[in-house]
Amino acid sequence: MNGSGAAAAGQSSGASLEDGGFDAEIFVEGSCPAPVLRSAKALRGLSSGQVLKVACLDPVSVKDLAAFASQTGNRLIKQAQAEDGGRTLYLHWIARR
Hints:
Elements: E1 24-28, H1 34-44, E2 51-56, H2 61-72, E3 75-84, E4 87-95
Parallel strand pairs: 1-2
Antiparallel strand pairs: 2-4, 3-4
C-alpha cells in the first residue's frame, strides 16, 4: 500500500480470491463517506469480475462497504482486520459487477 491512497493496479498477490487475491488496491485514511466514495471511483476503473482490495482505518467501513456492495450489485468477497504499526486496518475485497 502506498500512503497516497491511489489505486495500485496490477499488484495482485497472485493468490485465488479466497486467499485474498486482487487486481487493484486502495488505502483510505479518511472516515465516512471516504471509503465508499474512493471505492466507487476505483471500481469504475476495473472490468467486470476484477477485484478491488480496500484498506482503511475507519471501523464503520465494515457496515458501509457491505451496504455499498449490496446496493450497487458489486460482490463483497470478504472482510478482515489486520494490525499495522499499532493501528487497525479494515480490509475489504470487492468484485466489480
